[in-house]
């Protein structure tokens, strides 16, 4: 096949073959006290759109449009040195602290109760991360008592005195963050972490048996301790936890765009390996429960371009990790979403890291506007149309060679049956220069028409949205896709994210 020539792809959409039902928590995101994610991101008292509580209304509107369902908070690396008590009570009495993780100053004017206000107004579920770096089970149970106990004890009454009579009722808790990483405050061996996570989990369940707990898995699949870490941690924690976490960030290196566009191969291998490890421990322990995966940090992040030595030190809300995403990055994000959907039987929570300004789909200027990065669009599409039954579609297509992953399919796709009559097909064309002719057998689904073919593509793969040009890259409707006699045909432009809405 020569460059520019059309490539071919096929798949079958048959509701009889399903992966599973998507958990709404699959479309989560992440707010960390890092850079401008909180301060001048979601919270900016004095901004022209700020509400009385200091939350930016323009950002809230975009968060709702993005379709986020769950938000992890308050970190990240930040949480491993955090004292949650610093962020509650009268704002003027809260301490300013150094945050060693990001070499910043934290004012603490936004904390737990402000976050709970944010989740309420944004209509999302909170996922709270605990400090198991510099702290342990005692502080975790006190925080849980503050949040979830109705009253009549010091910690629960403290919450009530802070104006929250009704308990927050937070269900989802992460037992620390990336404690396998030597960069993490309180970094631990798998044995050390496994023990403290198990003990923290036990104590937390004594306080509130209804909590759902996430043990820390590996910070990425290239960690030298990968898989052994999960194995040891799960041997200690299996009976106490519901999830194990995965984190992964991808970037284009040395102009190797084909490998970058195939990043989902790594994510797929990561999930399969963690699931296999969970099931191995389950078999060994003869345990009836299946531990699920919380992919609670994932995204494109140009980490190699970062030079911490040149970044601002000990400032409040500095500009950190403000990656400006291209069309190519958005297609990779779409492909990673497809991977999460294709594994929805075991991945039951996931968080795009992060939500605003910091490697984020939403950008803001202090005192100025908020806008959508390119990566906003695939996430919003998946969050809007990805709830339902994920079907096993077994795509086949022209393949090409990549330096990192060998031969891969040009088509990466999945389909979600939203209701009896509606199917959404999510598809990525990984070729940078060839359109992809897709033929799908939709007879079993009974689809008779294409309601819309929505596409994100651009002749310039480096095109981005910026403050000066916030709408440079936007999705558009594409004509030409059709269903005839049970066969869907559509052409996917080179390097594109596609959503095909099919109806009976
Ligand atoms: O999301 C940015 C950082 O990436 C988080 O703080 C950390 O958990 C991960 O390494």
TrEMBL record:
Homohexamer; trimer of dimers. This is non-reducing end alpha-L-arabinofuranosidase. GO terms for molecular function: alpha-L-arabinofuranosidase activity. Keywords: Carbohydrate metabolism, Glycosidase, Hydrolase. Pfam families: Alpha-L-AF_C (PF06964), ASD1_dom (PF22848). It comes from Saccharopolyspora rhizosphaerae. It catalyses: Hydrolysis of terminal non-reducing alpha-L-arabinofuranoside residues in alpha-L-arabinosides. GO terms for biological process: L-arabinose metabolic process; polysaccharide catabolic process. SUPFAM superfamilies: (Trans)glycosidases (SSF51445), Glycosyl hydrolase domain (SSF51011). SMART domains: Alpha-L-AF_C. Its EC number is 3.2.1.55. Gene3D superfamilies: Glycosidases, Golgi alpha-mannosidase II. Residues 296-496 form the Alpha-L-arabinofuranosidase C-terminal domain. InterPro entries: Alpha-L-AF_C, ASD1_cat, GH, Glyco_hydro_b. Belongs to the glycosyl hydrolase 51 family.
């Amino acid at each position: 096949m020569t460059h520019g020539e059309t490539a071919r792809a096929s798949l079958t959409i048959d509701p009889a073959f399903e992966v599973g039902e998507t958990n709404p928590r699959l479309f989560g995101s992440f707010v960390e006290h890092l850079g401008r994610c909180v301060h001048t991101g979601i919270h900016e008292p004095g901004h022209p759109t700020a509400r009385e509580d200091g939350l930016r209304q323009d950002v809230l509107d975009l968060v709702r449009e993005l379709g986020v369902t769950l938000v992890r908070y308050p970190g990240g690396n930040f949480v491993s040195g955090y004292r949650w008590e610093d962020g509650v009570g009268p704002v003027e009495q809260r301490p300013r602290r150094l945050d060693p993780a990001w070499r910043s100053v934290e004012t603490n004017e936004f904390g737990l109760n402000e976050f709970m206000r944010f989740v309420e107004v944004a209509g999302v579920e909170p996922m709270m991360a605990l400090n198991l770096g510099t702290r342990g089970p005692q502080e975790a149970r006190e925080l849980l008592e503050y949040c979830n106990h109705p009253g009549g004890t010091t910690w629960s009454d403290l919450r009530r005195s802070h104006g929250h009579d009704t308990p927050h009722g937070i269900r989802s808790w992460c037992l620390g963050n990336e404690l396998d990483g030597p960069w993490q405050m309180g970094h631990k061996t798998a044995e050390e972490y496994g023990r403290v996570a198990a003990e923290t989990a036990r104590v937390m369940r004594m306080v509130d048996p209804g909590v759902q707990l996430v043990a820390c898995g590996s910070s990425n699949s290239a960690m030298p301790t990968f898989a052994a870490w999960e194995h040891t941690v799960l041997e200690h924690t299996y009976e106490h936890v519901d999830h194990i976490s995965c984190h992964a960030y991808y970037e284009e290196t040395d102009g190797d765009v084909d490998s970058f566009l195939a990043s989902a191969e790594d994510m797929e291998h990561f999930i399969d390996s963690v699931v296999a490890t969970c099931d191995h421990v389950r078999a060994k322990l003869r345990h009836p429960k299946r531990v699920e995966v919380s992919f609670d940090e994932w995204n494109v992040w140009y980490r190699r371009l970062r030079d911490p030595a040149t970044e601002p030190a000990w400032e409040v809300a500095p500009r950190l990790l403000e990656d400006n995403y291209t069309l190519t990055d958005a297609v990779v994000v779409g492909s990673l979403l497809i991977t999460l959907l294709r594994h929805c039987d075991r991945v039951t929570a996931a968080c795009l890291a992060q939500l605003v300004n910091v490697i984020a789909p939403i950008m803001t200027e202090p005192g100025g506007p908020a806008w959508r990065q390119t990566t906003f669009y695939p996430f919003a599409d998946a969050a809007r149309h990805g709830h339902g039954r994920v079907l096993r579609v077994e795509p086949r297509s022209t393949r090409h060679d990549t330096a990192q992953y060998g031969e891969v399919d040009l088509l990466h796709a999945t389909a979600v049956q939203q209701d009896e009559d509606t199917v959404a097909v999510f598809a990525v064309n990984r070729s940078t220069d060839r359109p992809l002719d897709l033929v799908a057998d939709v007879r079993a689904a009974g689809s008779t028409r294409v309601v819309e073919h929505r596409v994100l593509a651009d002749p310039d793969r480096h095109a981005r949205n910026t403050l000066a040009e916030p709408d440079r890259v936007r999705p558009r409707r594409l004509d030409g896709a059709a269903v005839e006699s049970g066969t869907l045909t559509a052409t996917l432009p080179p390097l594109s994210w596609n959503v095909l809405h099919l109806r009976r």
